[in-house]
Write a structure and sequence with these properties.
Elements (H helix, E strand, L loop, with lengths): L6 H14 E10 L4 E7 L4 E6 L3 E5 L5 E5 L6 E6 L5 E6 L3 E10 L2 E11 L13 E6 L5 E6 L4 E5 L4 E2 L7 H5 L4 H4 L7 E6 L6 E6 L3 E6 L4 E7 L4 E6 L5 E6 L4 E5 L11 E3 L10 E7 L7 E6 L3 H4 L3 E7 L2 E7 L3 E8 L8 E8 L2 E6 L7 E2 L12 E7 L4 H14 L14 E2 L9 E6 L3 E6 L6 E7 L25 E3 L14 E6 L5 E6 L3 E8 L3 E3 L2 E6 L22 E3 L2 E11 L6 E5 L4 E5 L3 E6 L4 E7 L15 H26 L4 H19 L21 E9 L8 E8 L3 E8 L12 E9 L6 E7 L27 E6 L2 E6 L4 E7 L8 E10 L7 E9 L3 E6 L5 E6 L6 H5 L2 E2 L4 E7 L2 E8 L8 E2 L9 H9 L7 H10 L1 H22 L8 E2 L5 E2 L7 E10 L6 E11 L1
Parallel strand pairs: 25-35, 40-42
Antiparallel strand pairs: 1-61, 2-3, 3-4, 4-5, 6-7, 7-8, 8-9, 10-11, 11-12, 12-13, 14-15, 15-16, 16-17, 18-19, 19-20, 20-21, 22-23, 23-24, 24-25, 26-27, 27-28, 28-29, 30-32, 31-62, 32-33, 33-34, 36-37, 37-38, 38-42, 39-41, 43-44, 44-45, 45-46, 47-48, 48-49, 49-50, 51-52, 52-53, 53-54, 55-56, ...
Length: about 1050
């Protein structure tokens, strides 16, 4: 009998899917991986960070974030904002320059790339002639000065990237007035620094690597003064008075020069080596900021004594009699100073330092120069992340208690507000309070506010103080020794070293209603904690659980367990441990579950699982799941190498068996034998690869390694023995496709502390293909997942339907299977691996609300496969709804780190320090919505004009205006040609098919190279008050459609 599709129903369902599901990658949380460049705009109050992967990220006030990505797979080496504009220029290590702008579109700003440029030298010139090493964004906002490896300086007009060849500064022009004995046989080497005169923008200082510095006049096109340094130059700083210059050098010294007009200046006014006469490392950057009252701030990076402290990453700050060497734990990328007052010319207020693993902001106006806590760009990987756990809709009372505990820990931070406040955050307030908990290698659990765009640190829990470790709990790393020289002070929170790898956190479970927390570690330790608002001194009671249950013939070859402190320990306010379960053997804890209403914790390792009653503080039951043939599980932490070796042996044995078999059957058919051997070898090599694509479903051997490893644990109040009365139960799924169900007999509430809680084995399911079980869910009579413990008691969820029959959903790596309870008879299944080899890696239940109807929504199952694809599956019908590619299938760590939220969002690690947030929900989307307005245009014309009049060149401003007017006809002709060329280019290109534009994480679109996406516009600004029809300037813009 034919089945006819109901087209009307399908169309209605497709429309409903559009209202429920929509995939977006919304924002990246954390610290950019491998930063390589830093920029800052005082007028916009925006911070820019470039990375080695070609990303450019902008940050302003909390919630104001933008991200762009260069097409080229090249590192960003420099970032420069154009003064008082919304444009910035990036330089990549492939020598290309890129122009970006913040353009308003539909009420929010978008970061768009609007142009690119590469210097081209004369025919036959070596690449070093145009290899850019220094960039100066001129204060006029219309020029870029590009210093090169060959010693030349090119002048480029922006934003159109038009080279002004007549204004270029060649190395020959510079050398013409340098004494011959100074030049000698060596060249000047590359341009190391370019600085603008703070009082006269028409003068620039060119610093060459060899040590020469040249004061150049852009109008006269000649050198005014030469400073003949003898040490290799690292950086220069022109002081605000315009008459003094600082230069830092490779020998750890800095020099003070005076602009006198006397040419050449052979000796500096003063030369100092801050850290003694011993050989020192280079001072890579130096600044001197004046103050209204008192001495200036001198700030420089490097300069440490090479032999004693050559491995330190330091920035020294000297003010009056205070001298501090800020000691960072990773390499310094760059730094800048934020200043107070109008046009940011006042006293220095904050020092912003970008190091390789974090951003540190130091308050320069408070006593002791404390660090300002960052609201974003927090290093998630201050200790390596080992697991994560997301909790949605945190009750206000628990939220405030966690906040209060975190404030106690943050007393060493500055009270000053965050100093970078550019842009406006237009994103709506989060509808709920969400927590992200991350477990770390050093035994800490960090609590993050994951409600909005910024992932803000709230509280840090340390489990190390429960155990004996090599670290002293009273050790303070931030304080230097009294009288130490250099005067070091540790700053920053990045600390990649762990005192004991056994402390690493593997599993976390938080009950948001009761305030109970369970964390499990690498050495079989499970801690049960409760939040407390006061400091408490207590002893943690330990219970040792033997998961092998005394089986003979097994010997644990792995790590030893951690030693518990027997004496009382003082715990600060926050989550405080009161019970410890220690598994024997002390293997990695692979699964935990917490039921705070029943006061139970379930735990599992590669050897078995058990249940612990943390109210009576005793163990309830233990089940050993170890396969007698599984020797690998007795050798310690999971080892991928052993399984690869086993696969190699099996593959080559099969090849040998096939060859022997073929020789017996047909010894003369050599060609056919060769062909089959080649095919078998190719299959064997394909099996040896670690790529996530697998074969079709195959039955797995019961002797495979780690079949007894417990993958998931689940508490449920459901029908286990009969359909008339529900009972508390525990469900456990293993790596060998086995599901165990235990019935729990709870005593009455009034006798809970006196009567023993008991557990009985009730059911056991063995999946046919022995695929690992990654998730278990019980559905009530309405087909909805059972609510969380205490959720119904707090009136935050509907009571489960206990009248209809319940169903058990078993999620294995290869399929989803639905069983009726209590008979455990198979009802339906959905295979995921039969064709494309997908294996389920992560699964979670989420509620998807309709974007059109406020009170409609559906519970669905969200699945992530080893292909990096997300699948949304309906419940209880287990039918595929939508699927989206999300993570590269080669990114195994990203897939393994993924965590789902209860409202259709998720996070996964795109690098050791960054979470990518994505959303599958059409209603709940957390993404940055920001607006950056251009600053008020205030050109420094009066200062510039006055400075020009003071120059002894004899050329007045009036004469220059006449000279520019005479060139206006040529400029207009050039504009006309540009317009005609663009018109022809546009007409030809409109006939071609456009390429799709690229989506940015900020919600905007990166302009494609197709001309029908943007139109090249030339704007002319005329001054009609002049008798002469004078063209002031022409600007190249791209009009975004």
């Amino acid at each position: 009998m034919k089945r006819f599709r109901r087209h009307g129903h399908d169309t209605q369902r497709d429309k409903l899917k559009q209202e429920l599901y929509q995939f977006n990658k919304t924002v990246e949380h954390g610290f950019p991986h491998q930063p390589s460049a830093l920029g800052f705009s005082p007028s916009l109050e925006l911070l820019a960070i470039g990375t080695r992967s070609g990303a450019i990220k902008l940050y302003g006030a909390p919630g104001v974030e933008f991200m762009g990505l260069h097409d080229e797979n090249a590192a960003v080496t420099q970032v420069h904002f154009l003064p008082r504009q919304v444009e910035l220029v990036t330089l990549l290590d492939d020598n290309s320059l890129h122009m970006w702008t913040l353009r308003a579109h539909k009420g929010v700003s978008e970061l768009l790339e609007i142009g690119r440029f590469t210097l081209t030298g004369p025919p036959g010139a070596i690449p070093s002639v145009t290899r850019v090493t220094a960039v100066l964004a001129h204060s006029s906002g219309e020029l870029l000065l590009l210093g090169t490896e060959g010693g030349h300086v090119f002048v480029v007009e922006v934003p159109g990237f038009r080279e002004l060849e007549e204004n270029n500064i060649s190395v020959e022009d510079v050398q013409s007035r340098v004494p011959e004995e100074y030049v000698g046989r060596r060249n000047l080497e590359c341009v190391e620094a370019l600085q603008e005169n703070p009082l006269n923008p028409r003068q620039v200082l060119i610093g060459y690597s060899r040590g020469l510095m040249v004061l150049w006049d852009l109008d006269r096109r000649c050198a005014i003064q030469h400073f003949l340094g003898t040490q290799q130059l690292e950086s220069v700083w022109w002081m605000e008075d315009g008459g003094n210059i600082l230069s830092s050098h490779s020998d750890g010294s800095y020099c003070h020069w005076t602009v006198t007009g006397k040419d050449p200046q052979t000796e500096p006014e003063k030369q100092e080596t801050p850290y003694g006469s011993f050989p020192c490392k280079a001072i890579s950057k130096i600044l001197q900021i004046s103050t209204r009252q008192g001495p200036p701030f001198l700030i420089f990076s490097g300069g440490m004594p090479r032999a004693s402290y050559g491995d330190r990453h330091c920035i020294s700050v000297i003010h009056s009699k205070t001298h501090v060497a800020l000691d960072f734990t990773s390499r310094i990328i760059d730094f800048f100073v934020i200043r107070d007052g109008e046009r940011h010319r006042g006293d220095p207020s904050a020092l912003v330092v970008l190091v390789e693993e974090e951003l540190v902001v130091v308050d320069l106006q408070s006593e002791g120069w404390p660090v300002i806590q960052t609201p974003y760009l927090v290093p998630l990987h201050c200790s390596a992340i080992t697991c994560s756990h997301h909790v949605s809709s945190i009750p206000l009372k628990l939220w405030e208690r966690v906040q209060a505990a975190g404030k106690v820990q943050n007393t060493h931070y500055s009270k000053k507000p965050w100093p970078i406040n550019g842009g406006q955050n237009l994103a709506p307030d989060p509808p709920q309070r969400d927590l992200l908990l991350t477990g770390h290698e050093d035994g800490t659990v960090r609590f993050w506010d994951a409600s909005g765009v910024c992932l803000y640190p709230m509280y840090k829990l340390s489990t190390a103080m429960v155990f004996h470790t090599d670290a002293d709990p009273n050790d303070n790393m931030n304080q230097g020794t009294e009288g130490e020289w250099p005067p070091f002070r540790k700053v920053g929170c990045f600390d990649p070293y762990s005192d004991d790898p056994r402390l690493g956190i593997q599993k976390i479970h938080l009950c948001k209603y009761s305030g109970y927390l369970t964390v499990a570690g690498t050495a079989g330790q499970i801690l049960v904690l409760e939040i407390n608002d006061e400091e408490a001194e207590q002893t943690v009671e330990a219970t040792v659980v033997d998961l092998l249950q005394g089986q003979e013939g097994f010997r644990w070859k792995g790590q030893a367990r951690l030693d518990l402190r027997e004496e009382p320990v003082t715990f600060p306010p926050g989550f405080q441990p009161f019970a410890l379960v220690q598994c024997q053997p002390p293997a990695v804890v692979t699964a935990i579950a917490l039921h705070s209403e029943w006061k139970l914790v379930a735990f599992g390792t590669s050897h078995g699982f058990g249940v612990y009653d943390y109210q009576q503080k005793n163990n309830v039951m233990v089940k050993c799941t170890l396969n007698p043939n599984d020797q690998v599980a007795l050798e310690g932490p999971l080892s991928r190498v052993k399984s690869i070796k086993k696969s190699l042996r099996q593959s080559f044995r099969r090849i040998r068996r096939s060859r022997v078999s073929m020789r017996k059957h047909n010894p003369t058919n050599a060609a056919k034998l060769h062909e089959i051997n080649a095919r078998l070898e190719a299959e064997a090599l394909q099996e040896m690869e670690l790529a996530p694509v697998q074969r079709k479903i195959e039955a797995r051997s019961a002797d495979d390694s780690f079949t007894g490893l417990v993958r998931t644990l689940y508490f449920a109040d459901t029908f286990l023995s009969d359909s008339s009365q529900s009972t508390p139960s525990l469900w456990a799924g293993t790596n060998g496709g086995a599901v165990y169900a235990y019935m729990l007999r709870l005593p009455p509430v009034e006798r809970r502390m006196d009567d023993q809680l008991t557990a009985y084995a009730a059911k056991e399911i063995q999946l046919m293909h022995r695929a690992p079980v990654v998730g278990l869910v019980v559905l009530d009579g309405r087909g909805a997942p059972l609510p969380e413990p205490l959720e119904v008691a707090h009136d935050l969820a509907r009571s489960p339907d206990m009248q209809g029959s319940h169903q058990l959903l078993v999620i294995s790596e290869e399929q989803l299977k639905l069983f009726n309870l209590p008979k455990v008879s198979s009802k339906a299944k959905l295979k995921l691996t039969a064709i494309d080899g997908s294996r389920v890696r992560r699964a979670g239940v989420a509620w998807f609300g309709s974007s059109r109807v406020e009170d409609y929504g559906e519970s669905s199952l969200v699945v992530l496969t080893n292909q990096g694809e997300l699948h949304v599956i309906s419940l209880p019908s287990i039918k595929m709804q939508v699927h989206y590619p999300c993570i590269r299938r080669e990114d195994v760590s990203g897939i393994a780190s993924c965590v789902f939220t209860k409202h259709g969002q998720g996070l996964y690690l795109i690098s050791p320090s960054e979470f990518e947030r994505f959303s599958l929900s059409a209603r709940w989307v957390v993404e940055p919505r920001s607006l950056v307005e251009p600053p008020t245009q205030t050109r420094p014309t009066s200062t510039s004009s006055q400075a020009h009049q003071d120059q002894p060149d004899g050329v007045t401003n009036e004469h220059r205006n006449i000279r520019r007017n005479s060139d206006s006809y040529d400029v207009l002709q050039e504009i006309q040609k540009s317009l005609e060329g663009d018109q022809m280019f546009l007409e030809n290109s409109l006939k071609t098919k456009p390429t799709p534009s690229k989506m940015l994480s900020n919600g905007g679109k990166l302009l494609s190279r197709c001309p029908n996406t943007f139109v090249h516009i030339v704007l002319l600004l005329f001054n009609e008050t002049e008798a002469n029809f004078r063209c002031h300037k022409w600007l190249c813009r791209y009009l975004y459609l």
